[in-house]
Specification:
Length: 178
């Protein structure tokens, strides 16, 4: 008799939480780089890239806030500040999505977004918080958290409901654009 094979867990390389997050920072940086290289004469591409950045940054903040930050709260005091920086990044990203990609304002918002992202991801997380965590947290815990972060990110990316929510959020932002 044919029986359904049990669902195999997704095969993925095991990585520490900090490595998973740094690799996702690279995804965000790549999108930012492409946005900065795309001229005003290609508003459709700029808009599509801004949408992708919106979704990826939203997912990045969710996985950090739901999995990583709570687990690291007792290891470094930097977590509290990081949480509030996420709110600022989200506000700035909203300003970017609202801006018309054919305008100078979009370039200005993009410049502010770039600096805010680097300040948080590079200076605060990669240069300060992550090395501190790697020094004090248990390696096994970091690998377990890495698995959870990867699984959560894959789930968010593949969820149609989440995609629909993000699409709606972007549409609402653009409708309230001044
Ligand atoms: Fe963060
Ligand atoms: Fe991050």
């Amino acid at each position: 008799m044919l029986t359904e094979a049990p669902q195999a867990p997704a095969r993925r390389e095991r990585k520490t939480a900090t490595r998973v997050l740094v690799e996702h920072h690279e995804v965000l940086r790549g999108l930012m780089r492409q946005l900065r290289e795309t001229p005003r004469s290609q508003p459709g591409r700029r808009r599509a890239l801004a949408d992708e950045l919106f979704d990826e940054l939203w997912m990045h903040e969710r996985i950090e806030e739901s999995v990583f930050y709570p687990a690291m709260r007792d290891i470094t005091p930097a977590i509290a500040a990081a949480w509030s920086e996420h709110r600022q990044l989200s506000d700035q990203l909203a300003a970017l999505v609202r801006a018309d990609p054919r305008t100078e304002r979009f370039d200005r918002e993009l410049g502010v977004m770039h600096d805010a992202l680097e300040s948080h991801a590079h200076l605060d997380e990669e240069r300060q918080m992550f090395p501190e965590i790697e020094r004090f947290a248990d390696e096994e815990l970091l690998v377990d958290l890495g698995d959870r972060l990867q699984a959560r990110l894959e789930w968010l990316r593949s969820s149609r409901r989440i995609r629909a929510v993000l699409r709606l959020q972007r549409a609402l932002l653009r409708r309230t654009a001044r």
